[in-house]
Amino acid sequence: MRLEVRENVPIWVQGLAPLLAILISLVLCSLLIIWAGKPILESYALLVNGALGSSFALSETLTRATPLIFTGLAAAIAFKAKLWNIGGEGQLYVGAVFATVLGSGLVTLHPILMIPFLMVTGALAAGVLLLIPTLLKNYLRVDEVVVTLLLNFIVLLFVNYLLEGPIQDPMSMGWPQGRPIIDEGQLMPIMEKSRLHLGFVIALVAAFGCWIFMKFTLWGYEIRSVGLNPEAAKFAGININKTLIITALLSGGMAGIAGVSEVAGLKGYLTLDMSPGFGYAGIAVAMLAMLHPLGVVASAIFFAGIYVGADSMSQGMGIPSYIADVMVAVSILMVLISMLLVRYRITKG
Questions:
Q1: What is the Cα–Cα distance from 119 to 117, expressed in whole angstroms?
Q2: Whether pLDDT at 159 is above 70
Q3: Which DSSP string corresponds to 232-257?
Q4: Coil, strand or helix: which one is 335?
Q5: pTM of the full structure
C-alpha cells in the first residue's frame, strides 16, 4: 500500500471533508455517552442548548471563542510557512503583561488611542518573543518546536515572579494578581448582562485581515510559498529568512493580542490562571480549520461551544465534563485523517 497525490481535488470536497470528520467524531464520542449509560440524543441536545440555546449561552460561547480565534490565527499563519510555533501560550502571556504594565496607569490616552496602543504594543512584544526561536532556526538550525515549547514555561515562571512583586496590585491583599487596567484601556461589553466584549469584534476583523493578507498580498504569497517548497521559493528569489521573520512577528502578534484581549476585556487584571491553555488549543483550532484564517473563526466557535456546552451536559446528565477534551481530540484526529485522504489516495504498491 502506498499514498499517491490526488490531482485537481474539487473545492467542495475540501470543504466537506472537515465537516464529515466532525460528524464522525461525534458518532465515535457517542460511544462514551452510551458507556456512561445516558441517552445520546438528549445528551447532545443539552450540549447544543448549553452552548447556543440562549443569549447568555451564546455570549459565553463567543467569549470563550475570542482568545481561541487569536491563537488559532497565530498557529495557522506560522504553520503556513512551516514555522512550528508551539509557543502561543507564552506569547499570550507576554501580551497580557505588556497590557498590564502600560495599561494600569503608566500610559494614559483617550480610549480611541489607548486600546489600539495596548493591542499594538502587546502584539509587538509577543512577536519579538517568537523572533528568538525563529532566528535560532534561521541561522543555527535549532528546532523551533523545542524552543517555543520551553519558552512557554520560562514566560509563565517570569509572570509568576511579576505577579508576586513588581506588577502586583497593592489592593489585592497579597493575592498574586496584576494591577487593574484603567477605564480608558478596557474593552467595552457588546451585549448587556454578559461577558462578551469588543475583543470578539476585533478577533473577527483580525481573521478577515489575515485572510486578505495571506491571499492577496505579496508577503502572504511568500509565506505560503516558503511553506509549500522552501527550495523553490529560494530559487524564485524569495528571501527565506526575511519571510520567516515577518511570519514570526505576525504569528506572535496574534497570540499577544489574545492576551491583551483577555486582560483588557474579560478580567480587567492579569492572573497566572488567566489562560486554561488557549495557546495550545489554538493549534487544534488551526488544524481543524485546515489553516484557513476564516475557517479559524468557525473552528474556534465550535471548540468553545463544546467546552461551554459540556458543562451543561455534565450537570444535566451526570456525564463527566472531560468528555469535551475527548471530543476535541477525536475531532482533530478525524480532521487530520480527512486532510490526508483529501490530498492523497491509497493505492496498491
A1: 5
A2: yes
A3: HHHHTT--HHHHHHHHHHHHHHHHHH
A4: helix
A5: 0.91
